[in-house]
Each structure stands twice: as structure tokens, then as C-alpha cells.
Request: fold
Amino acid sequence: MQHFVRSVFALLITALFLPACSDHTPPRILIFSKTEGYRHECIPVATAALRKLCLENGIAVDTTEDAEDFNAKNLRRYNAVVFLCTTGDVLNPAQETDFERYIQAGGGYVGIHSSTDTEYGWTWYGGLAGGYFNGHPAIQDATLKIEKHDHPSTRHLKGETWQRKDEWYNFKDLNPNVTVLLSLDESSYQGGTNCKDANTSARPCHPAAWCHEYDGGRAFYTAGGHTKESYAEPEFLKHVLGGIRYAIGKQKRLDYTACRTPEIPDPTRFQKTVLASNLTEPMELELLPDGKVMFIERRGNIKVYDPATGLVNIACKLPVHSEEEDGLMGLALDPDYEKNHWIYLYYSPVGNEAVNNLSRFVFQADTLDRSSEKVILQVTVQREECCHAAGSLEFDGEGNLYLSTGDNTNPFASEGYSPSDERPGRSAWDAQKSSSNTNDLRGKILRIKPLPDGSYICPASNLFAGKEWHCSWPEARILPEGQKGRPEIYVMGCRNPFRISLDERRKLLFWGEVGPDAGEPDTARGPQGHDEVNRARAAGFFGWPYFVGNNKPYRDHDFASGKNGPLHNPEHPLNNSPNNTGMRELPPAQPAFIWYPYGNSPDFPLVGTGGRNAMAGPVYYCDKYPAETRLPDYYDGKLIIYEWMRNWMMAVTVDSMGNFSRMEPFAQQLKFSRPMDMVVDKNGAIWVLEYGTQWFATNPDARLSRIDYVRGNRPPIPSLQARKTAGAAPFSVCLDLSNTQDYDGEYLKYSLDFGDGTRPLKIHLKKPSARGGQAGVEPRKRSELDSIVHQYLLPGNYDITLRVKDEAASERTAVLKIQVGNEPPLVRWNLRGKNRSFYQPGEVLNYQVEVTDAEDGSLAQGSIAPEVVATTMDYLETGFDITSIAQGHQASRQEAEYALGKMLISRSD
Reply:
């Protein structure tokens, strides 16, 4: 829906200024003034003034605050778009794409005042606007220097300077390729910062208006325009009018054949197929050359999915120590797997020695040869306290194997800030012993090149190698005299680098970093917690536990006295911990590539809010896969990142220098349940492991899935739901199929097999439940799909199978499990009339747990023993690590299951 204020008489007014015989079409601009941050009170006055100014000068004007107007069809109507005092993230990724294409086709851009306080997460826009806002002093008079007298926006100004009153911005990330038209004399007012450390001999250090040709279009920006009074100043209005005329240029027809940015693909063409479910803490997966899929589970299972049969088989149950976060964590295939059948596992062996092994095994005929194990290296850990094991494995094209390791540090006694407890006996609470210890393999990403004999080479370009090292375990445990840095270390200063990814073409390493937990910054301690997606161009130190995010520093905190010292210096970090066995002076800290807290992120607003667990997925290069099955070229070269807690995926554009350019949702209409790992197969499809909803458990929604991009006919998307899935016999189940979708709006055929030998139910009717490339479902009246009732007479477990076929004979299936024979218990918190949604601090909460069961009676009657009921209650502060809570719930559940088992045994013969 477009919301324009249109000038219906614009052409009539323009005709007064043109010869009667002219067929000239006046230029048209769009004034856009949407705000998602601070809203300037001048906007209504400025809009009216600019409309009047343009109409008086033969320029037609439309105005809008609706970002929906940023679509290809509508933008074609305009010669230039004016961003009038916009703030914040005002366009979504699809609108950003259409605006990029508009500029590349030859469109114009005008930015006024806070248009530089807009779209911080879109670096292309930052280049177009020419820079970003970096604070401002109070409104005051200042002197502007006229740098160019021959520009339409400045040629009306007399002399060498211009005195005016406004709110004068300081800037960051200034584009060096712009032509500066006006600059600020910082000596003429208070609060200017751009010239303090600048080389004033080169170019104006504090530009205030500029122009440039950018990516096919023309852009003009002026920093003025904060006050209402600005839009009554004749000289300022002429300045803006000149900038608009520059952006309009010669009024050429837009040429969309010149666009570099491809059109955004239809998101409804992403299709997710669930291939296996009910997994138990799946961790990493690999694609085997024969088309099978191998994946591991934390508690030791190595499983193989066979696409030919649709079955998952357990190839091996590896004994592992699986307390806290340890277990079977990493999996990689040798680059020559088809010849040698070697796989690499990173796991925690059972035994009294607290180590994690990186081992090589022979895996052949879907079987792991346990006797073939060759320990490549060991990472010494502590097992008394959790957390952070990491364990991702990846090979690069040169045969180097990368291994991520966590800081192996308990974070729960640091209030969510830097865990740097240096008191005696508190090594497990001090990440300086690991992440920032150059002589320790924890809190790192290691890089080695395994050799056939089980030894390995440390490349000379590793962080502390200096030369190529040939190492063999266990001899490599002991470094030569004077060597204080482990040669295996490529990246250090990591907290929990859970998933790593390699960009072979750009020679970049990416990883997701699970961050600390403080919900708010504290001037006495340091910044709030941030998760990170990091990028390494070369070996380096990435800051933990002294810095987080874009090198936000913590203070040196004395846990014994509670006193705080100075902020750590990212240029010269020092490790003075008594638990440090390596170098004291560390390399300069590298800032994160992407970073975000629990709350809103001003730098990367698309990431949302809530729990955090950043992951790095593959970089997608389209030419590696067949054209008919790969993703659209739009995704060529983009990094896919994903969020384990927030269940989203993002496609990140990385520029030619390896820098962040922009991010956008990826396959956003698909639903995920804690994505854990992903790989791309030879056809360009993406395989995903999903951990599932519950922590440390077998989950029905823990799945192996595949994402395809469907060209042509899109298969139907079946939906099979039930109000109740378990009960005593006879049991009536009420099914709902009405959320089944078909994006092509075809006639659908439904077949419902109840799994008990009764005749399947057939339904044929048209249900175009999604259309026009939109993922929404239109509301519909009740039909025979809404309430399908079936009765099961005998106890047992049944699979209800729904098959849906469209007119093109594409068929998809959904399965629902039904349990008949036992009525699930009813569990209720009785809060004695208290509000169930809100709790006031300090209020006493009286409660009673009520449990009734159709077969077993109730707690109140005494027929259900209290010890078989697990009850947990938690207060989750913003920023508290939910892992510890999940582990507490799991422990309580295990105690209840143990009590029930003990009771059943005692009642048996």
C-alpha cells in the first residue's frame, strides 16, 4: 500500500515555466522521512518547505514514510530519492536490494542531516551516504568553509565562508572518494572531533556537505537541516535545491541492465525436507562420497543416513566422557577419504586423564574400526567445572585441519563479565589460563597438517610457529626451551568458537563465538555480553577474556578485593595471571566481524533480541554446483551464518577485501529447531543438523534436514496437527490438516493413513493456501480439513501418515506419532489465586504442585509418590547463561526417573 502526498497540479505549475510547445517531462523525486530512532521535529516543516521549493523550480514531488514504496516498480518513477532526517534501520533487505539496483541503474540520492544516522548494518548505504553519524555537540553557530564554488549547491554562496546555526555532526567511516563541497571550521564552535587527530594537509578534515558518483548513480549529502528554522533560510534551501539538481543529473532513463546486485530470489522457493528425527544431541555432519550422510551425537553415537532407504543406522557407539559439555564433538573426513577411508574425531575419552583427543580412525562399510585409532594430538582440560568445549573440525584445500577449542572456564562466578579470577585454587574460573595463554591449546583455533604416519606439520604462518614445525604426539607436549607459544595455534583469544567455516577463495576463516552473559554494561567492570561472528585473514589474537565485540574492553578486576583496575588496552594486551604459563605480552586484539548483545543491536539490527549462540556456516559459491539444482546466483560468495538460540539464518555479503557489507534473512519462511551444523552437497543443497528444543536430551524435533531451492513447480507443504497425541484406549484423536500449503495454488489430493489397518481417508479439494510469493496463509472457513476424528480401540503406538499431492504429481509426507494406552498426567501449578504472568520483586509466592493421572491417581490422594515428580523453578536474569539452568532441569528429571525405576523394581518379583 503506497502512502503518497501527491501534487496533482505539479505539471500545471511546471508548464508555466516551459515553452508551450515543449514535450519535456519534469523530473520527479521521492522524499522519504521514515524514522526508527530519534525523530526530528523539523520533518513536517522540512517536507512542506522542500515540496514548495521543488514545485516552484519545476520538480515534481511525492513524499512517503512507507518503506514498502522501495520496490523496483515504484522506484522507476523517480530521478532521485531524498532521505530527509531518516534514522535507524528503515528498509528491510528486499527494499535495500531494490534501492541498490535503483542507484546502479542511474538513480540519484540526496541525504539531509540524519540520513547518516541510518542503516549502520548496510555498508553499501554508508558508502552512498558518504559516512556515518558519530555524535554531535549542542546547536550553535559555526563557520563553514566553501571548498567548491562551482557546484549547484554552493555557487550561490558568496565569499569563502558561510556562517550559520545548526546541529553539527561529527562523522565516522567517511568515504574518501567524495568531493567535499563544504567543511566545518572546528575552531569556530565547541565539540568538533573530526580534526583532532587528522592530517589537515591532505583534505578537509571535517566535511559538512559532499557529492560523488557512486555505483552507477549520483549522491549528494548535507549535514545541515536539524532545526525548523533551517527550512526558512533562503541560502540553505538553495543549497539543498542544488544538491537535488545534482542528484537528478541529466535526467537519463534508468538502465537496469547495468545493475550488479541481482534481484532478490523468491523466498517461498526454499524447501526444507526432514529426513530423520528423534536424534540425541547431534553435533557435526559430513557427506560421504557414496551419497550417505554421517553425523555424530555428543554422547558418542556415530550415525549414517542412507538416502536410498531413508534409514539411520548406528555405525558405532564410541565410549566418551559426556559430563558437562564434553563428549563426541567434532567430525571431519580426510581429503583423500575415498582412498584411505580416514575420518577424524574430536572427543573426550573415558578415564581419569582429563584430556580431549583429536584422533584418526578407519571408517569403511559404515563401520568404525576402533582398533585403528591414531591419536594425533591431545588437549589437556579440566573436568571439575563446566563450560565451553567447542570442537569443530574443518579441512582446507591445502590439507590443513582446523580444530576449535573452548576456554574450558566456569563463567558463573563473574557476573557475566570477564572470568579472570586469579585467586589460588580458582584456575577453573580464570580464562587467562587458557584463551589468552600462548602455551595452552584451549580457547583457540588450531591449524595442523596431518601426515600419513600420524604426525603433523604446523604451518610457518601459524601465530607462534615462525617456521614449519614437524610434530609427533606425545613428544610434542614439551616445547623446546624458550618457546612460549604453541606452534599449533592459528587463532587465540576465543571463548567458545563452536562452529568454524573456511572461505577457500578469499582465504578467510570464519567462526561463531558464544559470548559472555552480562545483560548490561557496567562502567566498573566492562561491556555487556556479545556473541560474535569472527573472521581471520591471518593468524591473530581475538581478545578473550580482555575484550568482546569490536574490542570493547573489560577492566582488570581483583576478585579477592573486589576492586577494579584500568581498562585493558587492545593495542597492548597483557596476561599477568599466575595461571598463565605462556607469554605476558600478547599480539594486538582483533575486533569481531559481527557482534550483538541480548537486546537490540544498533550495528546489526536484523539479528533481533533474546538468547544468543552465534554459528558460522558455509560460504556459498554458485559455480561449484549444477545450475539446475544450486541456489540462485544472488547468493554467490555469501557467508551463511545462523543462530542456535534464535533459530534464524542470515546471508552475509562479504566484499572483495573480506569486510562485512550487509546481511539479510536466508530462507526465513522455513522453521528450524536450534540449527547445529550445516554443509553443502555436490548439487548445491544445504544439509542441516537440528539439535531440538530440549537441552541434553533426545528430541522429536532434533533432525537431519535438507534445504533445496525449487525452480518450477513447488511441492505442497503438508501440515498434520492434533489437539492431543496420547490417551487411554479407546482414544479419539482430532486432526487438523488445514495449514497445508501450496504456493502455486494447485488442486491438492490428501491421503490420511491412521496406521491401525483401517482404510485411509481420501480428500480431494482445492486449497491454494499461499500465493504470490508470500509465506502467509489466508484465513479460511472451517472445512473437512479442520476437524478429522479417528478412534483407536486398542493400546499401541501408531504413526499417522499424511500424503499430499499436487496437480504436477509432486508429493510430500508428514507423520504424527500417537500413543494409545496411557492417559498423560495433568500437571498444574496452584499459585493460590496469584497472578500467573507477573511477579513483583520481594513478593512471597505460595504454591502447590498438583498432579492427577487417570491410571495412577494423584499426589493429593497419595497414590503418586512425591519423589517421582520432578519440580524445578528458576529466575532467569537477562544475560544469565541458560546452559546451567538446562543442566539443573536435566538433573532433576534424571532423579525423578531414577526414583520411578527404583519403585518399579521394588514392586517386581
